Amino acid sequence: MAHSIQGVQTRSVQASQGYRRRVSARVLTLLASMSISSLVSTASAQEAMYTEAATMPSPGTYVLRQQITYFKYGLHPHRGSESTEETVFENSLTAGLARAFSVRLTVPAAWRREEPGPDYPSGEDGRDQGVENLDIMFKWRFYQSDTTGINTLRAALLFGASVPSGDDHDFSTGSVNPAIGAVVTKVWGRHGFNQDFIYRFNTGGDFASNMGGDGPDDALKFDTAYLFRLAPTEYTEHTTGAWYATAEINGLYETGGDTELRFSPGFMYEGREFVFQVMTQFPLWHDLKDRGELDMAIGVGVRFLF
C-alpha cells in the first residue's frame, strides 16, 4: 500500500512539473512573440525612405523623422540655370491619434546653388535658401491582417494638403494644394513591400521654381519599395534591431506631361525606438520639358519614437 501511495504521489509530482514546464514554455513563447511584435510595430515597421507605409505610431505616441538629401540637377529650361544643387532638410512629426489614425506635419528647409546660364536673371548670384511648402498628411488604416507577429498585410488612405510656408515663390507656392492617396504594405518573413499613389491638386506654383511636383500642373506621385532583412535571419526574444537592404522606384507624373522614374537603393537599421537610413538616387527614365533632369541624389535619415 505504501509503495502504491508513493507511486501515485510521484506520478502526481511529475504531472505537476510537466504542466508547469508547458505553462512556462507557453509564457516564454508569448513574451517572445510580444517582444518581436513590439520590435516590428514600434519602429514603424519596414518603412523605406521615400515611399509611404501603411504603418503608424500607437495612440499617444510620436515619431520624429529628420532626413537630409542632396540633389544635383541639370539644365532648368525656365530658370535659365545650367545646373542646380539643392540640399533639402526635412523635419516631420507624426502623432498617433487613434488605433488606426495618425497625422504628420513636415517642414522642409532648402539651400540652393545654381550655375547661371546665358538666360539666367541678371543681378542674382545663384544662391538662395528658404522654407518650402509645409505638408500636412492624415493616414487612416482601413485594413489589417496579421497572420503572425511579423507577417502582415495592411492598407491605408492618405489625405491632406501642402500649405504656404510664408516664404517667397522661389520655395513656397503660396497656395493650398489638397492631396489624396493610398498605400499598401506587406511583410512576410524577411521581405517587405510598400506601394503608394498620391495625387496632388496644385492650385498655385510656377514652372521656374518647380523642381518636381510643385509647379502649376497637378502631380501624381507613385512609389514602390522592397526591403530585405539582412540580419537577423530570424527574430528572437533577444532581438533589439534589424538591418535591411532597400530598393525603391520613385515615380512622378505631372499633368503637363513631365514624367520621371528614379531608382533609390539604400540600407536601413530599424530598432525599437530608433531608425537610421542612407540611400542614393539615380535617374531611371524621364521625359521632361519644364524642369531640370536629376543627375544624382544622396540622403541620410533618422527616426525616433517617443
Describe it for me?
The chain is mostly beta strands and 306 residues long. The protein has a single domain (43-305), classed as monomeric porin ompg (Porin, Beta Barrel), CATH 2.40.160.40. The chain is 13% helix and 54% strand. It has one helix at 2-42; strands spanning 62-73, 81-98, 101-116, 127-131, 134-146, 152-163, 177-188, 191-200, 219-231, 241-254, 259-271, 274-287, 294-305. A twelve-stranded antiparallel β-barrel has the order 1-2-3-5-6-7-8-9-10-11-12-13. The radius of gyration is 25 Å and the shape is globular. The protein starts with a helix and ends with a strand. Residues 1-6, 12-17 and 27-44 have low confidence and may be disordered.
Q: What is the CATH architecture annotation?
A: Beta Barrel
Whole-number count of domains:
1
| Ends apart, CA distance between termini | 66 Å
Question: Into which percent range does the helicity of residues fall?
Answer: 10-25%
CATH topology value: Porin
Oligomer: single chain
Number of helices: 1
Order of helices and strands: HEEEEEEEEEEEEE
Low-confidence stretches: 1-6, 12-17, 27-44
CATH first level? Mainly Beta
Our estimate of the beta-strand percent is over 45%
CATH H-level superfamily = monomeric porin ompg
